[in-house]
């Protein structure tokens, strides 16, 4: 319902992509918060750290600042490419703009249009070397990677925490 109320491009394939993109983002946020929950000592600290990590990722995702405007040393390389928001936003843009035409803002001639592809390349600075479905595949791969990282951290914590407690008890005596 929200998709059509906001005036997004109509079509079952575009709607399906939107839903898949939204679900992948939800799974990625959940996976990242699972990793953070294992690492931090209590839930309040987890919420704070998770919100901070999400905030940094959103700021570097290409929505608030265009990719060419990001400072290069840290914010673009590696933060921009690590942020899953980059792939979600670029996939969303490709889903909405490819195949569309818009009235141009140039006052030279009337009835001049600009293609959605040109908007993506020039105005939004979207990487056009791959399709929107590759963005979904990258998001899926990131989700699997986050889940594997979560599993590895849980297994390492199972081994390390009892040893740390034992060392702490020996130091207290």
TrEMBL record:
Entry's family note: Belongs to the ABC transporter superfamily. ABCG family. Eye pigment precursor importer (TC 3.A.1.204) subfamily.
Main localization category: membrane
Every ABC-2 type transporter transmembrane domain range: 2-97
InterPro entries in the record: ABC2_TM, Plant_ABCG
Annotated PANTHER family: ABC TRANSPORTER G FAMILY MEMBER 11, ABC-2 TYPE TRANSPORTER FAMILY PROTEIN, EXPRESSED
Organism annotation: Aegilops tauschii subsp. strangulata (Goatgrass)
Cellular localisation: Membrane
Chain segments annotated as transmembrane: 15-36, 43-64, 133-157
Superkingdom, natural source: Eukaryota
Membrane topology (UniProt): Multi-pass membrane protein
GO MF assignments: ABC-type transporter activity
Keywords, ordered alphabetically: Membrane, Transmembrane, Transmembrane helix, Transport
GO cellular component, one term: membrane
The protein, known as: ABC-2 type transporter transmembrane domain-containing protein
């Amino acid at each position: 319902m929200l998709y059509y109320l906001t005036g997004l491009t109509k079509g079952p394939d575009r709607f399906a992509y939107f839903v898949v993109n939204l679900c992948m983002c939800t799974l990625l946020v959940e996976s990242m918060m699972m990793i953070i929950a294992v690492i931090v000592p209590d839930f309040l600290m987890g919420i704070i750290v998770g919100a901070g990590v999400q905030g940094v990722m959103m700021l570097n995702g290409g929505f608030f600042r265009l990719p060419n405007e990001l400072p290069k040393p840290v914010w673009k390389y590696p933060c921009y490419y690590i942020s899953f928001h980059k792939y979600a936003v670029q996939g969303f843009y490709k889903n909405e703009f490819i195949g569309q035409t818009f009235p141009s803002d140039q006052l030279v001639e009337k009835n001049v249009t600009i293609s959605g592809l040109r908007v993506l390349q020039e105005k939004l600075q979207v990487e056009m070397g791959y399709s929107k479905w590759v963005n979904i595949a990258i998001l899926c791969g990131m989700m699997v990677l986050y889940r594997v990282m979560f599993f590895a951290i849980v297994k390492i914590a199972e081994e390390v925490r009892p040893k740390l407690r034992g060392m702490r008890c020996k130091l207290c005596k």
